[in-house]
Every structure is written in structure tokens, then in C-alpha cells.
Amino acid sequence: MSHAPIALINAHLVDPVSGQEGRGGVLVVDGLIQDVGAHVTRAALGSEIATIDCAGDVVSPGLIDMRVFVGEPGAERRETIVSASRAAAAGGVTTICVTPDTNPALDNTAVIDFFVRRARDNGQVRFLPVAALTKGLHGREIAEMGLLGQAGAIAFGNGRHSVSDAQVMRRALTYSRDFDALVMHVAQDADLAAAGVMNEGEFASRLGLAGIPREAEVVMLDRDMRLVAMTGARYHAELVSTTLSLDVIAQARAAGQAVSCGVSINHLTLNENDIGDYRTFLKLMPPLRHEEERLALVAGLASGKIDVIVSDHCGQDVEAKRVPFAEAEAGAIGLETMLAAGLRLVHAGQVSLPVLLRAMTSRPAEILGLPQGRLAKGAPADLIRFDPEEPFVVDPGKLHARCKNTPFDEARLQGRVKMTMVAGLPVHE
Amino acid sequence: MSIARSKLSFPHRHLLGIDGLSRPEIEYLLDTANEAVEVSRQVEKKRTVLSGRTQINLFFEASTRTQSSFELAGKRLGADVMNMAVANSSVKKGETLIDTAVTLNAMRPDIIVVRHHCSGAVDLLAKKVTCSVVNAGDGAHEHPTQALLDALTIRRRKGRIDGLTVAICGDVAHSRVARSNIILLTQMGARVRVVAPSTLLPAGIERMGVEVHRDFMKGIAGADIVMMLRLQRERMDGAYVPSLKEYARFHGLDEDKLQRAAPDALVMHPGPINRGVEIASAVADGPQSLINEQVEMGVAVRMAVLEALAQHLPK
Known about the structure:
The complex is a heterodimer.
Chain A: E1 6-14, E2 21-29, E3 32-37, H1 42-45, E4 50-53, E5 58-61, E6 63-68, H2 81-91, E7 93-98, H3 109-122, E8 126-132, H4 145-151, E9 155-157, H5 166-177, E10 182-185, H6 190-193, E11 198-199, H7 202-207, E12 211-212, H8 215-231, E13 234-237, H9 243-254, E14 259-264, H10 265-269, H11 291-303, E15 308-310, H12 318-321, H13 338-347, H14 353-360, H15 362-368, E16 383-393, E17 412-422, E18 425-428
Parallel strand pairs in A: 1-4, 1-5, 6-7, 7-8, 8-9, 10-13, 11-12, 13-14, 14-15
Antiparallel strand pairs in A: 1-2, 2-3, 5-16, 16-17, 17-18
Helix pairs in contact in A: 5-8, 8-9
Chain B: H1 23-41, E1 54-59, H2 65-76, E2 80-85, H3 97-106, E3 111-116, H4 121-126, E4 132-138, H5 144-158, E5 165-169, H6 176-187, E6 191-195, E7 211-213, H7 216-220, E8 225-228, H8 244-251, H9 255-258, E9 266-268, H10 281-284, H11 291-310
Parallel strand pairs in B: 1-2, 1-3, 3-4, 5-6, 5-8, 6-7, 8-9
Helix pairs in contact in B: 1-5, 1-11, 2-11, 5-6, 5-11
């Protein structure tokens, strides 16, 4: 980076690692944070360094979203690197982990290489591919983890589907250790979930829709924890939706296993009742649960049981959603609304701002082994500026994602991102 | 029929479910249907309420009795009725539900009667058309005219619904008939029990205002009405219950078990019946059975529903 040094001053700095917040500034030189703290002021910097006066807005590390579907290659009508990049920048997301369920899947070095090059040339934020854990995501043969890692895969996952064969999962976990690779998994037992389309319970029964019990998730997660204990692998449960899962994870962690878990912003801010009159935009995988579960997840976030918040951004085109609920595809977009939706929890007094941001910045960075995601000297200058109070109404037509399937359609939110910086360069203002 | 009746008119443009109907609205439909019974018993059955109107029956799921019942009801009120045979239509060629709805709507029908295998599909269709829509059954969600015809049958025989004990028995989990009946009967003041093996009870059913029984004999003890549900063939062998034989033994209604219900108990079934599975022939054809009467009430109730919706059609 040969750009001139620039400083963000008069900001409300939030450091997710220490939990400290307070007035100060950040000095950016050559794409890195050269200095940060209360002492970084206009007076201290002198007149030669360009400054941006943040007028008391929050400045924090840019968000790291560990679960985003980008349709390249194979589903470019749903999302492209360009559209995802714009949506991410507008939402304050500076690093994206891309799910491997593309077509073809991200299961060989050529496709990873294609993706990395496309993202380098067309993306304004950082794209990190999560490679397929099994060939073709079929859950039968383990993928080339060593070669895929060298080609640029940040971790290994199986897309939307769990690896149902315990022997395959055991071998994948065992083999991952040789490369110290992170295995990410969406746990859901396919037989228990069966034809279910929403959370099992009274509301599903009233709507006449087939339910997915919480146990579909927990049974699979329980199995995985046994296999992790057996193999010593590094494991991240990508999407948990029930407090039962938090207990399973906490237990494994207490036993010394290297496990972590993530939750989607939707499961923290919405519940099954939001499906209302068969709203297909609220059809998600795992399904939205009961309000009690949502509250328990929020408590889990506050207590640190939940490590990471993801958008689980998944564009679905109109044809996939304008059908009866049972026949609709699951998924919702979320890159652009994740921060503002999360701020609902802060405004409701349920979590502090540093705790919310930690789950979107420094915790994912630690799990993935990334240098960004912190306000520290020498860290990459991936920064965002936002006013957490600024109200706005979500207008799907103005979102940058290619598909407009947002569950926050017309929702009133607070906290719009005013500026996003990647490696010291503004990508959204 | 269609003489000046009580000032209360039916305020809804569609009939998508029992959920959302008030008790007076249900009573209004039952009163109207009660008069329609007499119309159907006359030699001259033709009325003119729907004269010049077009009714389309759009059945995505095969049905003999419901479709013919709606067809007769429409014709007796003077409508031109068209049955869409979905099986050989463009739906088979991949047309979406909404495209089908919009296409039919462009043909300017006044009323569309819809049955679909997906819960919520009829609501979705109703949002995309300008005519009135009647739900003739959507997935495992609702079947409002069945619940209305059951209520009319009960009311004519027992003189009331309020205070009666009604046992709904069988595959409650997959039954739209059960859901609509639970909502309607509890709304009208009946004590409703659901009686089924645990695998055929939907989650959270106890919070829908019903008493839940797993033991059939206890479930029908003292009941005024025993309402049997049809068990689909594909659910009988091992999927939800181990076998047809075991189901019939523990949850099939026969003459012996019927002794446990109230002495003047009446037996109902939405049809078509599986003889010897959920109901023994001796009971289905016996003196306490209302099964054929239900079919007659079906035409009357559908006439009442069509007439009520006709109030909202542009003049």
C-alpha cells in the first residue's frame, strides 16, 4: 500500500479484545494500524497527516463473517463476488468466509484457485474460501485437505449438509489434525429432520407444517463431540439454534476440546412466530426456534458460550421463495443488516457493544487464525465507522445483494455503517 | 335461502380457514346451510344467487367427494362451474402455483375453490387473485368446509354443539380435518378430545385447547360424538404405526369399543373410509353412523359458503 497515512480521530473506539471503549483515534499507515488509542488526536498527529473527524461515531475492527454463500462458480444469478462484496462493504463486513456449496463445489484445488483469483480481481473485501470437507460434499470421501489448504482454503466444511456417516466424519477429523486444519460443520441429523420445514412445536402444528425437532441438531452435535474427543481435531459448530447445543459445546470445552460455535444473526433476533402467515423469507436452516430458545441464545452470547455471530447470508431468487412454504428454499440474506440487527440486542440492554462486536470480529479472527479483527498496533487496518443510534428502515430495493430475500424487510433498525475500510482503503462511504 | 335474513352479513371475501372466524360468523354459515338442506331436498333445486357467475374448482390433489360437492353446490346456486383437471394441465409442465393463479384470474372467475397438498398454498394463491377464494383443503393445515359440515350435522342431530364431548380419533398429526374441527368445535363451546397413538399426535397439541388421550378406550369414554379420521395407507406399515392389524386392534372403532361412548353417541367420518382399519363396517353402516348424512350436509354447507362470499362480488 503506497497510500498516504490517514487517521480516524475523535472516534468512540471499541476494542473487542479487551472490551475497552472510549474516545480516541486510529492512525493508519501502509494498510496497517500504526497507532491506536486516546492519545491519537489531531494535536498529537500534527498537520501533515490527513484526518477524518468521526464526531464521536464508533470505530471498530471490520466484521468477519464466517458463513456466506457466494454463487461463484455456478449460481451467479443468486450472488457474485462483486455483489457480495458491495453488500459486505455496505454492512461493515471486511472479511468473508465463503461456503463450499458452489457448483462445482469448492472441493479441488482448481476451483479454489479460480475463486481466489476471481475474488482478488473483483472483490473489495477479503474473501476466504472454506473448502469442501468431503468430495462433492457427498459425505463419502474426504477431500484433499493438504492441497486445498495450500491453495488458500481457510477451513473445511460441508455446506448445508451434515456428514451423516460417522466413520467418514471420524476420518476427516483425524486427517485434519495432520494439517492443523479447522473443521466446520452444520450439525443436523437428516433422518430426524426428515421432511421438516420449520421448528417442531405448537406453531408448526397450527400451520400444518412438518417440524424439525431441536434434537435433530443436538444428536448430531453430540456425536461430533465424541469424535472430536477421540481425534483431538479443531472443530467449529457453524450454526447452533438451541440452548441444548450450547450445553453440549460447553461440556466439550470444559473437557479441554478445541471446539467453538457460531449462531446466525437471525436466530438471535427472530423466532418461529415471525413466520406468521407462511412467510418464506423466514424459512431458514436450521429453522427459527421458539422465543425461549432465542432468549437463551442471547444469554449464551452474553456469557461467552457462543463464540461467533454469522450472517449466514444466502441469496435465493424470487422463484425459489414465491412458492408454498414447504416447497420454498431455505435461506436469507444478511450481510448488510447483520450489524444493525445485532445492535437491537445492545439497545435492548441484553449484551454490551464490545461483546457483540467481539463475536463479529476478534473471536472469528482467533478461531481462523487471522491477524485482522482487532484494534491493535500492527494489525491490518480493516476498520468500520458507524453511529449505533442512527435509525433507518430496511428497503430491500436498496440492498446490494443480488437477491432481496431479507427477513428484515421494512424493519426499523439502528446503526448504519458510514464508512468501511479494508487495508487502509475506504471501500464504502 | 337468500331471503332477507339477520342484518349480519359475512365480512370475509375469502374462506381460507376456520381460524379467524367468530362464533356469530360460524353460526351465520350454519343457519344459511340449514336452509340450503331444504333446497336440496326439493325437486326444483335451482337457485339464482350465483346466476351468471363463474366458479372454478382447482384441485391440485385428487378428490372425488369434495370436488363434486362443490360442483353441485355451485350449480344449484346457478353458477357456471368449471373443473380444472390439474393432473393434465400446465402445472405438470412446471408452471408455478402463482402463475396458474394469475392465469386463471385473467379469465375473470368470480370464485376459485382450491385444494393443494401444501399447507398455506391457498393463502398464497388468494393473495394473487382478485376473485374470492375458498379453501377446499391445504396440506395438513385447514379444511374449513369439512368442519362446517360436521358442525351442521352435529347441530341438527343434537340440537346444539355447546357442552358436547367430541372425541377426534386417529391420524391427527397429518389431518387438516382435525385442525379445522378443533378450532371450530372449541370456538362453539364443545369439549374436544384428541385420541391417537403418540406417533400420530402433533407437537404442542395439548396447547390447542384439547384433552389428549393415547388410550382409545379412555378417550372415547362417555363421548357424545366419535369422529374418526382416515389413516393414509403409506402411514400404516411401520412408518407411524407398526401395522394395519395393530392399528385396528388399538385404535379402530368397532361395536364393542363404541359401547364405551355415551349411549346415544353418534359416529362420524370425513371419508373415504378404510373399512376394518379405523372403522368396522358394522359401525360405519350401523344406526349410530352419520357418515352419509355428512355428505348431504356437505353440499348444503358449500352452498352457504358460496352464497356468503357472493355478497362481496362486484354487482
